[in-house]
Recover the amino acids of this structure.
């Protein structure tokens, strides 16, 4: 047991802090309630508690970063008005916001051990389990804190129950369960993690009624998505200005280490990511700048697209010359037409920047062709032959083809044809998958970044021949029109053209540029490979050489170190 002298408090309180009077610790609640009236006192209490009881993943006394500490202080103190504590918090990805709330819950449960009910809600079971797992780890890593717990339950209404009766529960709030877990419950503390991802109607019908009757502290946390959401209303609707305290943090707040050992990422890391994704990208704006976006928004900034346009000639089917030397490092991107869509072939050449501008390689559009339904767009043998004719005529070293759906019908034939070509062509079959981590989303994220960096060069249509200008203008219009459609409830961002419009030129180009700038060169050109491009992601391996995919939490008991810090003087 830890011996933690408490200055100016009763013997009963001293006994409670040392574990000798677990059931006689009403004095703890009195101390806690006094501290909840003052942010300064609460800040001192939090620092003392973390120093005495909690450890980080390196088994050091826990030191919070300013962003985390601020979230905990605001979550545990009463507003100056004396009204119900309601918080709407936006914080960037990877800033430690969920762990901060886990610390807040741990402190709350320590001081409020008698018949309190804490609810942690999230859009999925996995997300709800995140804060739950952090709280569990906080108690299990300290023998004294662990001794205060009566029961840990991980399945069928998971909970952590204190010996005094206070209980923490977790539950997903998803269309599949219609919010049944929170119905009829009256928590004394309600935390909603990733609140912007919860369906708006589910939230309003189930969560808000649960916290009305007993005026429980109500804390909403997350990273923004679309504006069609309760979280946006809590933060920016004037009707909620008097009821919600509003905290909005960005990556600039997250990079401040304060008294902590380190920040989650550095300013250099973030600036590099901003350049990679593009400051106008929806990912950067929502994940790190914490901006809400419209449910439907453009993928590309029109001004950035215009900046890609340069004066030069482009090759089209009318001017394609078999046997001509079109130069090295050419990639062909093909979006195979489906239904009423066209098949689009684009050719991209990887080049060094012109002039004295040293830097990353660029991708130049050197060939463009549309095969519409009237000109053989759905004739599979014709398309297959045409793709190979163009690839061989340009002397391409890589061919990347959309093999989703109808594209799969020609994949094997094209693969064999590329093997039999002289020289061989490196074939890449690309399958579009959806969701925020899907291959299409990642590919377009990279595409945005390359356009943002000025690494994509496209001919200006102004001085081209009419048939050339026609296809280049189509390329420009499709890029102007391409949209994100946000589905916050399902955590997806769909990338597609608006109704009645097309995205064939966009998909062909995105794949071509992906293979040109994000992947290593194909067979026959590894001698000039730029290893900075397409570098493999780091994986963690154990000493046996196996890839480690361990989760954040394990069942093993970590060695507990008693901190020298004392819990007094707050």
């Amino acid at each position: 047991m830890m011996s933690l002298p408490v200055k100016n408090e009763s013997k009963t309180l001293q006994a409670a802090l040392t574990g000798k009077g677990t059931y006689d610790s009403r004095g703890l609640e009195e101390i806690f309630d006094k501290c909840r009236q003052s942010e300064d006192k609460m800040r001192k209490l939090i620092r003392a508690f973390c120093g005495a009881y909690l450890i980080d993943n390196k088994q050091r006394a826990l030191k919070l970063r300013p962003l985390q500490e601020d979230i905990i202080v605001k979550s545990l103190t009463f507003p100056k008005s004396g009204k119900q504590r309601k918080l709407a918090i936006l914080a960037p990805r990877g800033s430690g916001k969920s762990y901060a709330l886990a610390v807040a819950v741990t402190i709350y449960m320590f001081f409020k051990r008698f018949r309190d009910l804490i609810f942690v809600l999230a859009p999925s079971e996995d997300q709800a389990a995140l804060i739950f797992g952090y709280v569990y780890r906080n108690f299990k890593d300290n023998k004294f804190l662990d001794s205060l717990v009566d029961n840990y339950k991980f399945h069928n209404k998971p909970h952590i129950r204190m010996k005094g009766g206070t209980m923490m529960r977790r539950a997903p709030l998803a269309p599949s369960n219609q919010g049944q877990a929170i119905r009829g419950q009256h928590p004394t503390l309600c935390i909603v993690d990733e609140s912007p991802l919860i369906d708006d109607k589910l939230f309003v019908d189930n969560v808000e009624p649960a916290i009305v009757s007993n005026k429980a502290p109500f804390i909403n946390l997350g990273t923004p998505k679309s504006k069609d959401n309760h979280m946006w209303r809590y933060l920016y609707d004037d009707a909620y200005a008097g009821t919600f305290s509003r905290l909005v943090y960005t990556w600039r707040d997250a990079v401040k280490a304060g008294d902590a050992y380190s920040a989650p990422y550095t300013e250099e890391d973030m600036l590099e990511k901003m350049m990679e994704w593009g400051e106008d990208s929806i990912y950067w704006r929502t994940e790190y700048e914490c901006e809400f976006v419209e449910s439907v928004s453009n993928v590309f900034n029109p001004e950035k697209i215009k900046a890609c346009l340069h004066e030069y000639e482009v090759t089209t089917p009318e001017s394609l010359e078999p046997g001509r030397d079109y130069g090295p490092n050419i990639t062909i991107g093909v979006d195979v037409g489906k239904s009423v869509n066209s098949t689009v072939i684009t050719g991209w050449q990887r080049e060094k920047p012109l002039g004295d501008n040293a830097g990353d390689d660029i991708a130049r559009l050197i060939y463009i062709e549309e095969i519409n339904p009237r000109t053989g767009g759905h004739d599979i043998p014709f398309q297959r032959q045409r793709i190979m004719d163009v690839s061989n005529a340009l002397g391409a070293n890589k061919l990347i083809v959309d093999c989703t759906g109808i594209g799969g019908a020609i994949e094997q034939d094209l693969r064999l044809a590329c093997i039999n070509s002289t020289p061989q062509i490196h074939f890449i079959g690309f399958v579009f998958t959806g969701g925020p981590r899907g291959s299409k989303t990642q590919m377009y994220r990279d595409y945005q970044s390359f356009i943002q960096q000025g690494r994509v060069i496209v001919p200006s249509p102004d001085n081209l021949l009419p048939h050339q200008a026609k296809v280049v203008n189509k390329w420009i219009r499709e890029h102007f029109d391409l949209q994100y459609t946000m589905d916050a409830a399902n955590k997806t961002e769909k990338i597609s053209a608006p109704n009645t419009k097309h995205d064939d030129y966009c998909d062909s180009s995105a794949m071509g540029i992906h293979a040109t700038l994000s992947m290593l060169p194909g067979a026959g050109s590894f001698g000039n490979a730029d290893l900075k491009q397409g570098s493999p992601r780091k994986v963690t391996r154990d000493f046996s050489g196996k890839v480690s995919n361990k989760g954040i939490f394990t069942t093993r008991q970590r060695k507990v170190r008693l901190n020298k810090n004392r819990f007094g003087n707050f």
Notes: The CA atoms of residues 486 and 493 lie 5 Å apart.
